[in-house]
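Annex B. Sample input.
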Amino acid sequence: MSGEPSLGLEVHQNKFLAEGDRAMTAIVRVVSRGGEASVSRAAAEVLMIDCSSSMRFPSTKIGEARRAAAAAIDVLPDGVRFAVIQGTDRATMLYPATDGLVTASEQTRAEARAVVEHLAAVGGTAMGAWLAKARDLFEGVPDAVRHAILLTDGRNDSQTRADLMRVLTSCEGRFVCDARGIGDGWEPAELTQIGRVLRGNVDSVVEDDRLAEDFRQLVENAMTKVLPEVRLRVGTMPFSRLRSVKQVFPDEYDLTDRCQEIAVREVELSLGSFASDETRDYQLILDLDPDLEPSHGQDRQLAWTELVPVPGATTEEDALAIAGRWTHDPIPPTLIHPMVSKYAAQADLGEALTAGGDAYAAGDRDGAEREWGRAAALATAAGDEETLSRLAGVVEIVDAEKGVVRLRPDATRSHALHVVIPSRVSEIAHRQEDRPMPEPADAPPVACTVCPALSPAGANFCVGCGRPFGEAVS
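Annex B, continued. Sample output.
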């Protein structure tokens, strides 16, 4: 690697709370800057290609899968370690023939291309077995940036959903996996679960002949990654609780249940691998103790967040506070931070797309037109051309601003899946959950050496001036 990457952290929020408010939403932005990918630093790629019997119908599916695998192999730089798995009701090493990764070169790329030209479709579908094989292959390159692509046209019919989830949990943090559905027989919930747990991108391919270009772009994007894993740490106060954590850009994932508790009121979350110049946004929602006394006229720390140090990278900021300030003035609470507002609107759009897909699957044409019409209006207001393009595959947009659409007579389930899949990944929580807050600590408050404010026991920051507390402060 030439040039060490740096990681930055930002917190965006409207800190003002009205009397009675007991929830705070903040957007945490993680930014990587600088650094260049170098194949001398290990990178590894595993392709998992569905070769179940359903890939034979129509025959273009297996043919385009062969072309896509070859296209991905073609763009692997010299020095990258790679493998191709034939996925059926088991995981079979296609290239190399024995377990292990091979180093990309002109010769190995040519050998791999020749092998994938003879991919045959026969057998069932056990995606958990494919992922477990990829996990084991990546064990040989623990310091590499590890990326996989999984292609399927069907459901995980050779395993239970619990089996798949167990495998996914064992793979989490070990590699990033992008998942693609082709045809109209795959299950959105399964692919979104793979992408959510393994922090990858999930999408569908409607026209089979676009699969090769999609694979090529996925591999090229993976080769820009310079940090194998970045982790975010979030801490709460005795009077606050982390309700949810969701990635909201560039992909939308509810990651609340992926947080790992590392200490009392502290959790860590794997964010996956990062490129040399990349930005991701995460939405945090905090619930506050209903009995918490508002502090007027000064900020109160509600939580804090920081990046866990990453070998080979510098961290630009120390821990940052998520703060709140109660006010009698009714105006500030109405001034929603633009980033918070943006992602709330994005959540509304996702809900409309999902509701339209559910109605379409149930044969409710009026319901599908109503919900997809609402989605068209929201996408138009947001200037979301990508969503409008997807919607055009299932509806004719009569009046985008008013949300008037008509279902296309030539729309297929494949088109409907292409609309629904981006919205299945996450739903932004709006309502405060009715769960008890942890009991407050009996320890005395912490005194700040800079300002006169007293902070609750266990606080990492002063609620008055925001200065981080060191171990020496008592």
